[in-house]
Amino acid sequence: MSHPTPQNAKVVIIGAGFGGIAAAKALAKAPVDITVIDRRNYHLFQPLLYQVATADLSPADVAWPIRSIFSRQPNVRVVLSEVLDIDTDAKQVVGEESRFDYDHLIVASGAHHSYFGQDAWEKHAPGLKRVIDATEIRKNVLMAFERAEISDDPEEQARQMTFVVVGGGPTGVEMAGAIAELAHHALAKDFRRINSRSARIILVEAGPRLLSAFPETLSDKAQKSLEKLGVEVMVGTMVQDIDAQGVQLENTFIPSACKVWGAGVAVKDVGRWLDVETDRSGRVAVADDLSVPAHPEVSVIGDAAKVAWKENADVPGIAPAAKQGGKYVAKRIIAALQGRPAPAPFAYKHAGNLATIGRNSAVIDFGKFQMSGFIAWWIWGVAHIYFLIGVRQPIIVAFSWFWSYVTYSKGARLITGLRPLYEEIEPEPASKRG
Amino acid sequence: MSHPTPQNAKVVIIGAGFGGIAAAKALAKAPVDITVIDRRNYHLFQPLLYQVATADLSPADVAWPIRSIFSRQPNVRVVLSEVLDIDTDAKQVVGEESRFDYDHLIVASGAHHSYFGQDAWEKHAPGLKRVIDATEIRKNVLMAFERAEISDDPEEQARQMTFVVVGGGPTGVEMAGAIAELAHHALAKDFRRINSRSARIILVEAGPRLLSAFPETLSDKAQKSLEKLGVEVMVGTMVQDIDAQGVQLENTFIPSACKVWGAGVAVKDVGRWLDVETDRSGRVAVADDLSVPAHPEVSVIGDAAKVAWKENADVPGIAPAAKQGGKYVAKRIIAALQGRPAPAPFAYKHAGNLATIGRNSAVIDFGKFQMSGFIAWWIWGVAHIYFLIGVRQPIIVAFSWFWSYVTYSKGARLITGLRPLYEEIEPEPASKRG
User: Fold this and answer.
1) What residues contact A310, with CB distance under 8 A and at least 6 apart?
2) How far apart are CA A130 and CA A161, in angstroms?
3) Which of B55, B59, B99, B52 lies closest to A139, judged by CA?
4) Interface membership of B238 toward A (CB under 8 Å)
5) Cβ of B143 and A421 within 8 Å?
6) How far apart are CA B164 and CA B148, in angstroms?
7) Residue A388 DSSP SS3
8) Mutation test of the interface with chain A: which of B3, B67, B407, choosing the one with the most A Cβ atoms within 10 A?
9) DSSP B51-66
10) φ/ψ (deg, to 5) at A48
11) Which of B192, B400, B429 lies closest to A396 in CB terms?
């Protein structure tokens, strides 16, 4: 069954994130030929990406080659390509070099960060979605200290050592805590002219509290933990402008060389590809079986899909939701191939919300059961390592992590800049391209 | 003694490679103020860099933040800066932002790769000196397989899967062996349309044999080991041209998308900085105490120095030589500060030459004692891990390495491109710079 034959149904999956990989894995024994298309050659474990940004982990610790994930699954073909469009009439995904026929299409292309229309802010305050973002932020943070060390101007030193994190969701909370620890512990002995402990880390949130998806008590605990780490938390504060010099708030300008964006995400392209309406953040509203009403052979899962969940809330854009969506669609496709009735509508099971605050504290919301502090941090850590894909990495990540925790040393503290691979590939004469 | 005071002698060290770090460490207890200037924020363990190129290790495994190396040595100040010039009259090193006074200057700026005047070859056949080179080569190698997988043209597939390594020294031998193993083992299950085992790896050497610094018997053994791995070795073969399409040899053109340069190194800038003559490869001839005759307060060590060793041979450009030079100069400076006579002239102690050929074989030349094969490979591995600086990394490198050896899997197999940090730093208004 598992050897692809020409008459197998063709499944194309766009995106090798949590959703796309779960779908492909769940189809491992189905009589289908699967094509997984991604613009990068690696799958990213996004929940730990902020630790790359703060030099606790290396990119290779949180990213896996997609090919190696499927090396033992012969019905999967991996294609490294940008997706330009979807031809829903011809049932083809349009890549850069070729078109890919599908009988079933699963769109799992995820979300990018969004600047609410202020795209000019992006170059001053990078967000955290890709490996390149994490290494960019790492470089910005470390270079700020380097520049402060070189500078003779106290005002400029203060500006270099003021870090503003915009957005009080899990990413912003995690980043602010991690930068505070980097400044106050890991770098404390490294500089001679500046005192890295005097760095200011400011977390700005427009809403009334941090971690709005969590219960209020946990928001309070998160804020207290951050303040204990030396983070200045400003809730109910709108950012009005961001430029190279700093951040303009309603009443004050904060001179800051290094800004990080954690405020919002949006979906690109999917509405255009499918020629369907989207909501404000670009998500495609799907039916209760995750298919697109106008194109039942197309499903959208993960961050790119808008799926109703409970009173006025949609299924959240987190990894477990994407995985559940991927598995559900695979099950539906298998049922259709076997001529069985479609499974019951997709029902999202919410396991909980987790966020970490530095190396000593986390907040966990399992609904009825909530916890915070040190034990919560260990549960967070074990849960994340447990869910890592791959074999070599979990052990190394666990070890890096444990070592880093014990020593406060930052082995991965290199200033390098990663760029998306396509920008760097030297174009070859068209006549020679395949 | 170790707390710097204004009247301390000022030692400036250019370059935080093996030589510069050894010198600074050896001056830890001397009454001197040390400034270590490097254009990057990390020290690189170059002997393992080829393993980054072939996706066995991550950049953070072979590179350490210079600041953390000196975090417990209070008489060292680290400055991240390019060196523009040396003002030998004023005794100042001219950086980008400031000038650095010295009483003693140690130039340990190393070597870059050299294309023997054919600089246009560089973009087609990158060499292996910096982290960016290693990740560039990794990307080129992996992308060649990706392109072959996409291509429908058998000729183009063959071109993508033909790898040419130029230069039969240790770097070239190591690279060719590692690419052969990547193609024939690690990637073997990853592709569906191409057979990575059919890749050709060609090692081209202009001289009559590989590893010319080794005895002939070891050269033969190295060649046999490479051939067993599937590498085609072409000795006595000159490269006449390299372009995007391939490599032109005397009698034949090899279509090849991915080329690696391991043929030569040269020193840049040092002669110009000091306004002294250099040899053809840019090295500065130093006195037998490693000082520059025209400027006795300036010493040159490591790859940048030309130091006589034995009958018609100079001290080789390898890490142990740089370290010994650094320690020697530190000793000489301490003697001068204490008013003691200068130590005896620098006498290089040659421990031996090592080169590895894939994961099963190495050649070691300890002079009277020579060995090759599997045991030699383990000695090579243990020796290199032993000499790694840092604490966290050796354990992780050892583990990564062992795991990679056992499983043939390439966890670090990510396609990313690293660039030197200065290119990516957004320029700020001059008025705001310190």
Assistant:
1) none
2) 25
3) B59
4) no
5) yes
6) 16
7) coil
8) B67
9) HHHTTSS-HHHHEEEH
10) -105, 5
11) B400
Written as six digits, the tokens of A114 are 């969004």
Residue pLDDT, tens place only, B417-430: 332 222 222 222 23
Min CA distance, A44 vs chain B (Å)? 11
Per DSSP bridges, beta strands B231-234 and B200-204 are parallel
Give, as one character, the DSSP assignment of residue B153.
-
Q: Are strands A284-285 and A305-306 parallel, antiparallel or unpaired?
A: parallel
- DSSP conformation class of B182: I
Q: Do B322 and B108 meet the contact criterion of CB atoms below 8 Å apart?
A: yes
Name the DSSP letter for residue A313.
E
Contacts of B142 in chain A (CB under 8 A): 41
Per-residue tokens: A302? 């993960």
Q: Residue A266, SS3?
A: strand
Residue B201: name the closest of B225, B177, B220, B167 by CA. B177
Q: Is B174 a catalytic residue?
A: yes
- Distance CA(A417)–CA(B425), nearest Å, equals 10
Q: Could you tell me whether strands A295-300 and A291-292 are parallel, antiparallel, or unpaired per DSSP bridges?
A: antiparallel
Residue found under tokens 């087609």 = B124
Please report the beta strands in B148-294, taking only residues with DSSP state E, as ranges in sequence order. 162-166, 200-204, 231-234, 239-242, 246-249, 253-255, 258-261, 265-266, 284-285, 291-292
pLDDT band at A411 (very low <50, low <70, confident <90, very high): very low
Model confidence over B166-196: pLDDT tens digits? Answer: 999 988 999 999 899 888 887 878 888 899 8
Sorted by where each starts, the structural domains of chain B and their CATH numbers stand as 9-39+81-111+267-337 (3.50.50.60), 119-263+360-407 (3.50.50.100)
Q: What is the pTM of this model?
A: 0.79
Task: Provide the pLDDT confidence category of residue B433 given band limits of 50, 70 and 90.
Answer: very low
DSSP string, B341-369: PPPSPP------EEEEETTTEEEEE-SS-
- Among B80, B431, B423, smallest CA distance to A245 is for B431
Matching residue, tokens 């140690």:
B106
Smallest Cα distance from A179 to chain B, Å:
17
3-state secondary structure of A211: coil
Q: How far apart are CA A250 and CA A273, in angstroms?
A: 39
Distance (Å) from the alpha carbon of A111 to chain B's nearest alpha carbon: 21
Between the alpha carbon of residue B186 and those of residues A4, B152, B401, B409, the distances in Å are 23, 23, 14, 5
Helix pair A374-387, A392-407: axis angle to 10 deg: 150
- Interacting residues of A122 by C-beta distance below 8 A, sequence separation 6+: A113, A115, A261
Cα-Cα-Cα-Cα torsion A261, A266, A268, A272, nearest 10 degrees, comes to -160
Mutating which of B193, B415, B423, B431 best tests the A interface, going by the most A Cβ atoms within 10 A?
A: B415
Average pLDDT over residues A326-352: 95
A208: tokens are 């009334």
Cα dist. A234→A192, A243, B355 in Å? 31, 19, 57
Query: H-helix or E-strand containing B374?
Result: helix B374-387
* Optimal mutation site among B76, B153, B190, B414, interface A, most CBs of chain A within 10 A: B414
**Pairing relationship of beta strands A83-87 and A239-242 according to DSSP bridges:** unpaired
A67·B190 Cβ contact <8 A: yes
Q: Do A59 and B416 touch (CB under 8 A)?
A: yes
Q: Which of residues 10-69 of B touch A (CB under 8 A)?
A: 40-42, 58-61, 63-65, 67-68
Element spanning A335, H or E: helix A319-337
Which amino acid would we find at residue A183? Answer: A
Query: Residues of B with CB below 8 A from A393's CB?
Result: 411
Band the pLDDT of A57: cuts 50, 70, 90: confident
A131 has a chain B CB within 8 A of its CB: yes
Beta bridge partners of B231: B201
